[in-house]
Design goal:
Blueprint (H helix, E strand, L loop, with lengths): L5 E3 L5 H9 L7 E9 L1 H12 L7 H15 L5 E4 L2 E5 L1 E9 L8 E9 L4 H17 L4 H10 L3 H16 L5 H6 L6 E5 L20 E14 L5 E14 L5 H16 L17
Parallel strand pairs: 5-7, 7-8
Antiparallel strand pairs: 1-4, 2-9, 3-4, 5-6, 8-9
Helix pairs in contact: 3-4, 3-8
Length: 283
């Protein structure tokens, strides 16, 4: 697993430096957007990857790999706010919630992977598959154990512990072994509503931690569309929602990033090789 490194961004415009002091909380700085993804080329790509041996591959892996690639091309989306200051990461940390089994009684847990911004789909697939397979073969682990210990603390004392962790989080002083386990300290959180057979939700961000973006995608839907020649064809789409922290970069940058995200998904084969260039965020 790659080691996460980060630094403060100091050369942003004065307005961008002031915004976190005006919008103090991440939840209060949320923006919501929805879009859809054509699935014809992605379904072909997924079948090719399955034939190559990635038996557990899904749209989840491709969306994560595309976002990682986006962090290489639009590095400002990998920023976060801590202590009312703007910070940026060198790696991409991805969190998601999984279940051991898809039933109502099965417990869930949060897992996290850390990859370099030059990661390929194979890198993402191997990292994520190892985490998911490891948990389902042997439920429990660091995050579950941490939550279990915290849940044993009396309520009033637990309230103080959580408050103290928030104070440490503000100053970036939480021990690294805790932030490594914490799913709230990440580049983005992703959740699949498609596995539940429903449309994507708009999932809120968390004021605790460093997560500046939450992605949700839904079940595949089919629509009949009229072509230019008057014929009707059936096409498949998946709806995707993003909830973002508007304090990390401006709306123009976010719009450019979303367009590039869709461009990557139109040609997912580019994810088979590292990016030609990994762009650095401003100093």
């Amino acid at each position: 697993m790659a080691k996460s490194t980060m630094r403060r961004v100091k050369s942003i415009p004065p307005m961008a430096m002031m915004v976190p002091f005006i919008m103090v909380n991440r939840v209060g700085a949320q923006n919501f957007i929805t879009d859809h993804i054509r699935m014809d080329r992605l379904e072909k790509y997924l079948k090719e990857k399955q034939a190559e041996g990635m038996t557990n591959i899904s749209l989840m892996h491709v969306l994560i790999a595309a976002y990682v690639r986006l962090c290489a091309e639009r590095p400002a989306i990998n920023r976060f706010i801590r202590g009312q200051r703007v910070w940026t990461r060198d790696e991409v940390e991805v969190s998601l919630v999984i279940k051991k089994e898809m039933n109502l009684e099965s417990p869930d847990t949060a897992v996290k992977i850390t990859v370099g911004r030059d990661a390929t789909l194979a890198d993402v697939y191997n990292a994520l598959d190892a985490q998911i397979t490891g948990y389902r073969d042997n439920p429990g682990g660091g995050f579950d154990n941490l939550v279990k210990v915290l849940s044993l603390i009396p309520a009033l004392l637990l309230k103080f512990v959580v408050w103290f962790l928030r104070v440490l989080d503000y100053f970036g002083a939480i021990p690294k072994f805790l932030t490594k386990l914490s799913p709230f300290h990440c580049s983005f959180f992703i959740t699949s509503m498609g596995s539940l057979g429903i449309p994507p939700i708009y999932h809120h961000l968390y004021d605790f931690g460093t997560c500046p973006a939450f992605c949700s995608f839904g079940a595949k839907r089919r629509v009949n569309e009229i072509e230019a020649d008057g014929t009707v064809t059936k096409k498949s789409y998946v709806d995707v929602t993003f909830v973002t922290d508007e304090r990390i970069c401006d709306g123009y940058y976010f719009a450019s990033a979303l367009r590039q995200f869709k461009n990557i998904l139109r040609d997912p084969w580019q994810l088979d090789t590292p990016p030609a260039e990994v762009k650095e965020d401003v100093k």
